[in-house]
Each structure stands twice: as C-alpha cells, then as structure tokens.
C-alpha cells in the first residue's frame, strides 16, 4: 500500500496502522481485514504496553496502600479518571464511575436510580433499535417495580419516529434510555434534542454511548444528559472496563450499587457509612490494569484528533456504501441521514452467516447475525445482517477486499 492511496490527505492511515500490531497478522493465509470494530476495536501498542508495564513495574492494590508501588498504581489509576473526564468533557472527576462496561453502567442506573425512583405505572422509554443491554435491564426493573417499558418505533430507513417519541412523553414517563448510535444500523440518534424534550417532560435521560464514544466528540455538558455509559474496549482500550458518567446531584442521591470494600467510609456492626463519589459506586478491587491502559487509548485518540478521525471514517462509510451497491441483490439495512461508519446489509438468497464464513476464509472479519438487537431484526423481518464496521485504521483497499470477497461468496452461494 502506498501513501498516495490514502483516502484522506489529513489522516495518515498507513502510519496509524503501524501502531496496531495485530493488523500485521494473517488469517487463513490472507492479510487480516478487520471490519468488526463495532463489536470491539483493536488495540494500539501503547495500550498493550501499558498493561505489561503495570504488571512488570508497579502491580499493587490501589487507594489504601502507603508503599511506593501502591502509590504509583493509585496515581496511574486515578489519572485515567482525569483523562475520561476530559474525553467526555464532564465537569468533575467525581462524576466518572468505573464499571465493567456499558452493560454494567446501564444496570447500575437501573438498580439504583431506577429502584429508588420508579413505582408502579411509571414508564421507561427506549427505542426499537436498542442493543439488548439497553432493553433487558429495564425489563428486569419493570418486572420488579410494576413499571412499563415503552418503545419508540423506527422508520424503514432506521430513524426514530419523532412524533411517536413525543407522544410517549406523558407525565408517566420517568426515564428515557437511548442509544447514541445504533450498533445494528449505524443510525446516529439526535440525542441532544431527545434530552431537551425529555427534560421538558420531566424525564431523565441515559445515553448508551457504547458506539458513539469512539466516533463522535462527546460533550456530556453540552448534551446535558443525566447519564452516559460507554465501554473501553470499543475506544481502542482494553476489555473489562467501562465508564458511567452521571450528574453529581443524581449520583449523590442514588443508593449504593454493589457493597463491600472501597465503597465504605466506616463499617461497624451497628451500621455502615458510605464513601464519597465516585468511590461509593466502586466496590471491591477494580480492574486496575485495564483502567490504567484506558488512559493510553484516550491519549492515542486525542493525539490524532477527533475531527481527522471523523472525516476519515465518513469517507470510508461513503465509499463502502457506494461499492456495496455494486453487488447484485444487496440491500443496505439502515439508511438514516445521519450514520456512523458501519454498514449492515443482506444479500438476496444468501444467509448472512454463510457470507461471514466465506469472507473469513479470505481473512475478512465481519459480524453476522442479530447484533444483540433481536427486536429490531424482527421489525425488519430478517434473521440478521452482515455488518462491516470501520475504524480509524481501515482503508479504502480493505473495502475493495470486502467487495471482491463478497462477489466471490455470492457467486459460490448462488451456484
Ligand atoms: N450498547 C450498544 C449500542 C452496543 O453496541 C453494545 C455492545 O456492542 C453495548 C451496549 C454493550 O456493550 P458491552 O458489551 O461492552 O457492555
């Protein structure tokens, strides 16, 4: 590949690729073409090195130790909190809670804010394009509290039906939980507008930022969301760690989530007092190594610049969308006006899984299936799709490889 083939004269994608060691590998004899970034992104060397450095140089438990290693580990861990605050432009570091990922963040809100504030007949609003992890925690809560789950329908293009959302904003609506970007369709939802409307109706809003934190510049103060959850592993960071942002007052008023060490101030058999924010919600030894490494992912993104990345990914989306239409019988599922860099599609008379297997035989990794959005697939009347999702290190040539692989796969399957 030559630098002149770069699809963006601003982002040097070939230089960036060198930072990701896994992109050198071969799969079944073919160079890896990794297009499953919406499931999890690959990790730059700096993130991998941060994990090794922690375990080889300053592995220790954090917060209570007075020895050197404990102090170094604590400082590194807490500096990630500062980096995350900056990354999502929150007001204070106390509003940044470390979790295991988006799923745990949503469950935390359901089990604390939800349990305390919802009662029988209250309504929770989600959309038809949610990931299961933004549906099931609310169903569990509804079953416990007698609350009701309401669903904003979507159009055939994969956009929310705004009038239907407005109709759902009755005085019974207490919470809206919405994907910033749909992992199955790529739709970017107008969350700022949704938050304004929901607040006018007296409901709070949690934004599922699992897909957006990597693609969009996140400013939780400008969005004015009440909660924002995302996962490190989708922003070039490690698995097993995530972030829940919450507005200070809401977090202060919420009961504790998990109980144990770390989240307490004083424990006696007569009664226990709880720690201040953010530690009140961080019971037990956290995932120290991965949290430390998350800062390196954030700094990696910051060093390149969100705007450059956005432009590159937009170009990839446009190129992929155009080229995919060359495949006879291919239909793109999700044609929203505002889309992130992923394309979901089906090809007539073929099964997504067969296409996925044949693409893998050429080293091309895509996701096939329902993408943890079974209600959405049902709505579209399909068992699933093939999803190609792009990251900052993907190239136009890799999309060409996808197209060749698809042409060959379709030819084989239709024979
Ligand atoms: N929400 C969306 C939109 C997602 O795409 C995902 C993961 O794919 C999740 C939530 C759950 O994220 P995690 O499994 O990292 O908790």
Describe this structure in words.
Helix 12 (306-324) runs parallel beside helix 15. The protein has 15 helices and 17 strands. With 415 residues, the protein is α/β, with parallel strands linked by helices. The protein has two domains: 13-39 and 305-413, Aspartate Aminotransferase, domain 1 (Alpha-Beta Complex), CATH 3.90.1150; 49-302, Aspartate Aminotransferase, domain 2 (3-Layer(aba) Sandwich). Pyridoxal-5'-phosphate is lined by residues 101-103, 131, 133-134, 179, 183, 208, 210-211, 231.
Give the CATH topology of the largest domain: Aspartate Aminotransferase, domain 2
Strand content: 15-25%
In spatial order, strands of the major sheet run 4-10-9-8-7-5-6
Mean pLDDT level: 96
Any ligands, ions or cofactors bound here, and which? pyridoxal-5'-phosphate
Q: For the record, what CATH class of the largest domain applies?
A: Alpha Beta
CATH superfamily of the largest domain: Type I PLP-dependent aspartate aminotransferase-like (Major domain)
Instruction: Please state the structural category.
Output: alpha/beta
- The stretches of 5 or more residues where confidence is low (pLDDT under 50) are 1-8
Number of domains: 2
CATH architecture of the largest domain: 3-Layer(aba) Sandwich
